[in-house]
Amino acid sequence: MSQPSQASSTSPPSPDAAHAHGKSPRRALPARPRWLMLALIALLHAYIGWRLLTPLPVAVGWKVLGGLWLVASTALIPLGLMSRAIQREPLATLLTWTGMTAIGIFSTLFVLTVLRDIVLGVAMVISAIDAQLVVRSAVIVLMLTAMATLLGFYNARRLARVVDVDVPIANLPPELHGFTIVQLSDIHVSSTIRRSYIEAIVEATNKLSPDLIAITGDLVDGGVPALREHIAPLAQLTSRHGTYVCTGNHEYYSGAPAWVDELRRIGLTVLENEHVVLAHEGASLTVAGVTDFTAHHFDPAKSSDPLAAVAGAPEGVPRVLLAHQPRSAPAAHEAGFDLQLSGHTHGGQFWPWMYFVPLQQPYVHGLHRLGRLAIYVSRGTGYWGPPKRFGAPSEITRLRLVVGTA
Question: If you read the UniProt record, what top EC class would you report for this enzyme, in one word (predicted)?
């Protein structure tokens, strides 16, 4: 295995104090936007209470409990979002669990309440509305929310299933036919995803005996001191040619320079606009990685550049790119890559957000084509924020390169 070929001779600037300590460089919201956000959250909860609690055919005590939950959720959501700024444990972890769970419940509850009002509005127009429809539809919204939350929690917390994908590559050398890459993506090690979760992923990955392991960004949500112990099992990943990593946007939120150093310390190869050339059964394969698509917002010297990542790579050798965001695909195509492995989207993570992903990304999940370039987008191996996956299951992806047509 050759050493990574550096994309640029420009020396990156020294990390600032936040990066040096592995902390997120986020700025606090000004007072007015913060209060506006809190007011909006409260208003939306009040809307849910008005539309759902009023018609429920239950005793007043149950309605009071429902109202208390909405009040608690109104407080827990911002506290959960701010929990990373709280240094005291176990308070920070408790607020993360409760706040993020509240976000997941609120999200489904709000969407279904809006859909219910649309249905009731149509029924009113066609004179088909009655008291029973109003009552039953409120009950159905609550039942569907409970079902989606429970199933979503189970799907998020269970070990991701293995998804097998064959990727046809034009002019693939026969020696590389059947070359296997296990892709892990968007694990988001954090207050709710800890060491035991990672150990299970590592064990499942190693059982697949891949030729190469690719981690396509958003591995962490937090600084190195807090999460070092929990990502440590990744050092036990085993494959014929090693484990390669590209950075995602959440690495930059969490102090990318410190995380790059830590991942390299435990034996992973982080590719920041650079590549390696692997020798396999007498054939060669170029594996490159780019920094996140938005990295230039944090460090202009780390601007994502697929062309620079492959500079100096041998011609006529298949090229695989690790790029966290699918929207790197046009630049990867121009740079002559054959396969791009991405994540970022989580496949939408839970209904109905998969339908909104195309507003930002060209691909949501699965295998796609852009000319000669094959793009595979993982739904992710963990989850972000709410411990909830509904309609977008997590995955450990085993990709097999196969000979394709030009």
Answer: hydrolase
Place of tokens 């609120």: 106
Q: Give the model confidence (pLDDT) of 147-206 as tens digits.
A: 999 999 999 999 999 999 999 999 999 999 999 999 999 999 999 999 999 999 999 999
On whether residue 142 sits in a domain, the answer given is yes
Alpha helices in 85-130 (DSSP H): 91-125
Token look-up 């994540």 returns 343
Q: Are 130 and 120 in contact (CB under 8 A)?
A: no
Structural domain range at position 49: 31-156
User: Of the candidates 129, 156, 183, which is a domain's last residue?
Assistant: 156
CA distance 111 to 113: 5
Give residue-wise pLDDT tens across range 360-373. 999 999 999 999 99
Q: What dihedral do alpha carbons 172, 176, 178, 180 form, nearest 10°? A: -110
Residue 101 contacts by C-beta under 8 Å, 6 or more apart in sequence? 149, 153, 386, 387, 388
Answer with the one of 156, 172, 191 that is the final residue of a domain.
156
Residues 171, 213 contacting (CB under 8 angstroms): no
Count of domains for the chain: 2
The span from the CA of 72 to the CA of 66, in Å, is: 10
Do 220 and 185 meet the contact criterion of CB atoms below 8 Å apart?
no
Q: Is residue 11 part of a domain?
A: no
Q: What whole-number distance in Å separates Cα of residue 163 and Cα of residue 182?
A: 10
